[in-house]
Specification:
By secondary structure, the protein is mainly beta. The protein has a single domain (18-304), classed as Neuraminidase (6 Propeller). It has helices at residues 3-12, 24-29, 151-154, 197-203, and strands at residues 18-19, 35-41, 46-51, 64-68, 79-82, 90-95, 101-105, 122-128, 131-138, 164-171, 174-181, 189-195, 211-217, 220-223, 226-229, 231-237, 243-248, 258-264, 272-278, 282-287, 293-298, 306-311.
Length: 314
């Protein structure tokens, strides 16, 4: 954060998230609503918001996406995803080429240590009316380097560690995939790059060497006088080539006391801390519908979901 920005925040206070309005009909269909990603869909004039779980208790893996207005209110009706029977732990959604979208699940083990196929999906989606249709799909854990290294090996991380994917951003024909965990030996958060994602997903297979290590970011916040490392919870590439990064504590790691938003200038290696969200978990960030600002959503656990607008960093 620049000194002038820090002074403004100190004098005026940072913007506060607001509750997303949840209509009774929508609440009756979903046991919980925990936003984990957001993107603007111009044909619907709505933000598409994904939630960790969708559906009734005991049936929380329905292939649905929520639709949110510019004013932060969910529609009564969900947006279905056609072409998959279940969607387990969706964590990120972003724009793709030609008005399409990419969506990923976490690819992480569930509470029982299982990683079923519905948790290991990167989807390419096309909006048809008020439904999203699957036009491509792969399992990111099948990625291999030209020498045969696994996805975590490509990322320069412990191949036996706990994988958790929570961020996507499409830029210059490639897909950036941000990892929540594991962190590197230095505590850095890693981003990998998938070349020609539309082609790979259409074929249902990732070519060897198509996934490469892109960046390692030092994401640290202070808690009780010491530095706490964070993993990536979402990514957004801005029109100027800079990168907005949301971050939270990885599962099972030391708690950070609240997530954060960072900004990595084009060509830079170290991100700038834009805002600390104490006691909150920022999980999704998108450009606003007019491209002049940011829109964030927060996973508020069993409490009402939250959202907010934010100015573009510059």
């Amino acid at each position: 954060m620049f000194a002038s920005e820090a002074l403004l925040v100190a004098l005026l206070g940072a913007p506060a998230p607001a509750q997303i309005a949840v209509p009774a009909a929508l609440g009756a269909q979903n046991a919980t609503i925990e936003p984990s990603g957001i993107v603007w869909a111009a044909p619907l004039e709505r933000y598409l918001v994904i939630s960790d779980d969708t559906g009734a208790a005991g049936d929380g893996h329905r292939p649905w996406v929520l639709a949110m207005s510019r004013k932060g209110a969910f529609d009564d009706a969900m947006v279905p995803i056609l072409g998959v029977e279940a969607l387990n732990d969706p964590e990120a959604i972003c724009k793709g080429p030609g008005g399409t979208f990419f969506l990923t699940t976490s690819h992480s083990p569930n509470k029982k240590g299982h990683t079923k196929p519905a948790r290991r999906m990167l989807l390419h989606l096309e909006l048809r009316g008020r439904a999203l249709s699957v036009i491509g799909k792969v399992d990111l854990t099948t990625a291999r380097s030209t020498s045969g290294a696994s996805l975590l090996g490509i990322a320069g991380l412990d191949p036996k560690a706990h994988l958790d994917i929570e961020a996507l951003a499409f830029s210059d024909g490639a897909l950036l995939v941000g990892l929540k965990s594991p962190l590197s030996a230095r505590g850095g958060a890693v981003i990998v790059r998938l070349a020609d994602p539309a082609g790979a997903l259409a074929k249902g297979a990732i070519p060897r060497g198509a996934v490469t290590r892109a960046l390692e970011l030092p994401l640290e916040v202070e808690r009780d006088g010491r530095a706490v490392h964070q993993g990536i919870s979402d990514l957004l590439v801005l029109p100027d080539g800079s990168l907005v990064v949301l971050a939270n504590s990885p599962k099972g790691a030391e708690h950070d006391g609240g997530g954060a938003m960072y900004w990595l200038k084009a060509g830079a290696r170290t991100p700038v801390l834009l805002q600390r969200f104490r006691g909150l978990k920022p999980e999704g960030v998108a450009l606003s519908e007019d491209g002049k600002g940011l829109v964030l959503v927060f996973d508020n656990d069993s409490r009402p979901p939250l959202w907010m607008s934010w100015a573009l960093p510059h």
